[in-house]
Design goal:
This protein is mainly alpha-helical. The chain has helices spanning 2-17, 25-43, 46-62, 70-86. The radius of gyration is 13 Å and the shape is flat. The mean pLDDT is 95.
Amino acid sequence: MEDLNTAIHQYLEFVRLTPDNHPERAYRLHNLGLGYRDRYLSRGTEADLDTAVQQLRESIKLTPDNDPERADRLQDLGIGYYNSLIDT
């Protein structure tokens, strides 16, 4: 769990240091969202899932429709929504 917390901390720092218009921002937000989702799956803390969905949604907003990563990012967001529904 400590490694996951460290990864989330690093992703937060990467996002903080990435300008809003940087081409890697969507990628970094996506990774941050996955980190929170993984921690949610390990600990079951609803706040982690909420943050994961928020970060994944932001990643999608920044991902162009023709980006090859868009489908995977949409799938991960859908999994986040699914987890939200089954846990309520």
